[in-house]
Specification:
This protein is α/β, with parallel strands linked by helices and about 200 residues long. It has two domains: about 110 residues, Trna Endonuclease, Chain: A, domain 1 (3-Layer(aba) Sandwich), CATH 3.40.1350; about 70 residues, no CATH class. It contains eight helices and six strands.
């Protein structure tokens, strides 16, 4: 079982699940932390749901660090893990993460839901605000009280102001809306991702 096999299976599942929902965007390799870290698959609609994939050929070595990063950004996270890794993986993730087991079958990879995801109890508003590019952050501030004193501010200062000015639910809603409206944003060069604020308190993977 390769990563590509698991990825194909979960993407097919998610596309089928959300095929009638025009408000849903499914993104492969979504960048967070200024593009330095990428979650395998993300679903953005009324929530932001990250899916981390671990095939039979993968190891779980990076999972604890990935958990720390994802826990601060996503409303929900689901681990899609090969059955051989499931027992160990369960000890490395919080109870609110969902778990989908991937097993080899004669006709491909079979997915089985082991545990449904729950809402993240501790989203970090600053990390959510850091998902926005500078111009997007300025536009968001303009909708929430104005940009006086911030029009020439850098991305990090803008993210800090957004995280303090907006209630967390409203901030998450604003960020989801912006992400879904970005034109061809997955094709943007790294210089565009560098317009995002970069955390100084936690090194990405």
């Amino acid at each position: 079982m390769r990563d590509a096999d698991v990825r194909s299976a979960i993407c097919d599942h998610l596309v089928g699940l959300h095929s009638n929902d025009r408000d849903t965007m499914i993104i492969e390799e979504m960048g967070i932390w200024a593009g330095a870290v990428r979650v395998d698959v993300a679903v953005i609609n009324g929530e932001m749901h990250g899916f981390e994939l671990k095939s039979a050929k993968d190891t779980l070595q990076r999972l604890p660090a990935q958990r720390v990063l994802y826990d601060r950004v996503f409303d929900r996270v689901t681990l899609v893990v090969a059955d051989k890794h499931q027992a160990k993986a369960m000890s490395l993730i919080p109870d609110w993460w969902g778990v989908i087991t991937a097993a080899d079958a004669s006709d491909g990879v079979v997915l089985s839901t082991y545990r449904e995801s729950s809402l993240n109890p501790a989203i970090d508003p600053l990390q959510v605000a850091r998902l926005l590019w500078r111009e997007e952050a300025i536009d968001c501030l303009a909708r929430w009280g104005g940009t006086k004193g911030f029009k020439s501010a850098g991305s990090e200062k803008l993210a800090q102001e957004l995280s303090q000015r907006l209630p967390i639910a409203d901030l998450c809603s604003e960020v989801r809306s912006v992400l879904k409206q970005r034109p061809n944003w997955l094709r943007q060069v790294l210089s565009d991702e560098r317009k995002m604020a970069i955390s100084v308190d936690l090194h990405p993977l």
